[in-house]
Structure formats: C-alpha cells, structure tokens
Design goal:
Layout (H helix, E strand, L loop, with lengths): L1 H11 L4 H8 L3 H9 L7 H11 L3 H4 L4 H11 L4 H8 L3 H5 L8 H14 L5 H7 L14 H7 L4 H11 L3 H15 L17 H5 L21 H18 L1
Helix pairs in contact: 1-3, 2-3, 2-4, 6-10, 9-10, 9-11
C-alpha cells in the first residue's frame, strides 16, 4: 500500500525512480523494493526522506492526511477536487493548500460539509485535520481550533442555514452578510440575551413620566465649548432650580 502510494505520487510529480532516490538520498534498489512491495514496512526515517523529497507530508504518503482521505474517496466516486469544489462551494485553493494549513474553526466546518457531500465516515476528516494543529501547551487559556469548533453548537436548522449559505457564490454571500447587518441593527430580530439595550426598572422609569413630575427627569449638563456668558447662564439656571427645590 505504501509502496503504491509512493509510486503514484512519484509519477504525478514526473520523477523517475532514480530521480526520487537521489533526492531522498537513498539507494535506487531500496526505493524499488518499497514500491514493488518487497519491503512491506520500511522504517520511518526512510519514509520521511521520501516524503521530503516528494515535498508532501508523511501523513499524506501514509494516506492519513485529510487531503489524502478526500482524494481516495473522490477516486472511488470518479470525481476530482474541481468537482468537489463545485458541489461544496469551497474554493479550489483550499484543497490545493490543505496539506499545508494550520487549521482554524472554519476549516473544520469545511470538513463537516465535505464529509456530508461525499459520504466519508463521521469525523474521519476532522480527526485527520487535527494532526495538523499546532501544539497546545499546558495553559488554562490555550485551546485548539478544534476545541473552538466544538464549542459552537448547531441545531438542525442552523446546519440547514449554513449549508444553504455555502451553496451561494461570493456575490450571494455578500448579499446575505449585507442583509444580516441590517437585521442585527434591529433589536426586533435579535435574541433576548444579545440585546444591548438596558431596560430601567418599571417604577424608576415611571417617576418622571407622571404628570407634574417632569422636573424629575435626569438631565446631563455639559459645559463643552460654551462661552463664559453661556456657562454663567447655565450655572444660574442650576442654582435657581436648587433654591426652588428647597
């Protein structure tokens, strides 16, 4: 299996057996034995040299990377990455660079969409993508991108909305974002816990609304940019009010 993967990748990169052996700094006979299956379990050091020479991650060579898993499933379905890009509305550039990314939560969401579209077993791609995460050190505030992805809970309706959004082209997505901004500006369409308006207690709110108690309405006084004459006038009004109150 490993030998076949090496041979296929070598041929895709238009390298001869000798050419790859020289780049990997291993003997031609060793490489030939691996490709033909005479050596079933080559040591990890040799495999790392071959992977480096082919300019691919070792996990891709071992068919454990997210991209290699997708590729295997596409071959079974007689599909290309271009086909997958069209049905998922995920950029082809994402697939081209998939082996080199350090994943963020949006990459895991893409994996979930891909799994659904081509029928890969649940979480297989997500687990493979986790292998590309940067190390998370022992810190109470350190979290992986996958942890952030898991923290976002979606119900079936949310998933339906997301999938519908992903079928749009860039122009359509921009329209959705533009319309969503208008909705967010209107408290009528926001969840109660997300509303930023602070409601005053009912009794306190009614004090200055009662007839004859309008003078209790709180007033903020500022002397910004006032002339001396205007400032003196404002002080007189406040002083007169305080005298009358007594």
């Amino acid at each position: 299996m490993i030998g076949k993967n090496i041979k296929i990748t070598r041929q895709k990169k238009k390298l001869s057996l000798r050419g790859l052996a020289e780049k990997a700094k291993i003997s031609k006979s060793t490489l030939s034995d691996i490709e033909t299956g005479k050596v079933i379990n080559p040591n990890i050091t040799t495999l790392e040299k071959i992977a480096d020479a082919l300019d691919i991650p070792l996990n891709y060579l071992l068919k454990k990377s997210a991209k290699s898993i997708i590729e295997q499933n596409l071959e079974k379905l007689n599909m290309t990455f271009e086909d997958l890009s069209k049905i998922t509305n995920i950029s082809i550039n994402f697939f081209n660079s998939l082996d080199d990314i350090i994943p963020d939560p949006s990459d895991y969401r893409n994996m979930a969409i891909i799994e659904e579209k081509i029928g890969i077993s649940s979480n297989e791609l997500i687990k493979a993508l986790q292998l590309q995460e940067s190390p998370v050190y022992n810190s109470p505030i350190s979290t992986s991108a996958y942890d952030d992805f898991k923290a976002t809970k979606y119900d079936n309706k949310d998933k339906q909305y997301i999938n519908t959004y992903m079928t749009l082209n860039d122009l359509g997505k921009n329209k959705v974002i533009e319309y969503t901004k208008d909705l967010l500006a209107n408290p009528k369409y926001k969840k109660e816990e997300d509303k930023k308006v602070v409601e005053l207690p009912k009794k306190e709110k009614q004090i200055w609304e009662e007839e004859g108690k309008e003078h209790l309405m709180p007033i903020a006084c500022h002397n910004d940019n006032l002339t001396d004459e205007e400032n003196n006038r404002m002080n007189d009004i406040i002083n007169n009010y305080m005298k009358n109150k007594k």
